[in-house]
Structure prediction request, 171 residues.
Amino acid sequence: MTSAFTKNKPIIFIKFGRKLKAKVMKRNEIIGKIIEEQQKIIENLQNSVNQYKSESDMDEDNTSDPDDFARQTEAKDMQLRFEKMLAEAKQNLAFMENEVDSSHSEPESGALIETDKNWLFVGISVPQFKFDGKDVVSFSEDAPIFAKVKGKKTGDTIEIGNNSFEIKSVM
Prediction:
């Protein structure tokens, strides 16, 4: 067994390099899919910002109805809310892009956990999707589910609701 360092994190190369390579490829594919989902979220949020911006930019000289001013104020408020969500979504995308070359040995932000029934990604939340016939569920460290996976390792069992999942690997 030999070891190397990537971004100050040790990576252990096992004689069964194909197995390790397959895990890295799976992780990269799942991270790529999460990035795609995050880009869709950003696109939708940007569209919402643009919509509310155009609604809030009405010509005040041509408007005398108080209801129009109220709608304009409401649209501006919504624009600001969506801009805040958009900024957070862009930060999440940057986080994901930094995770492409990372690896993890324990459940923490950026870790991908393979269980016997699904995949769990800790870091950001995107809509659930399928990979290799298993659901990929993503969540942040602030989500209640994280408390159930924190400190667990390969071979441990996670109890979520009425379901139990065995951890196969943490990447």
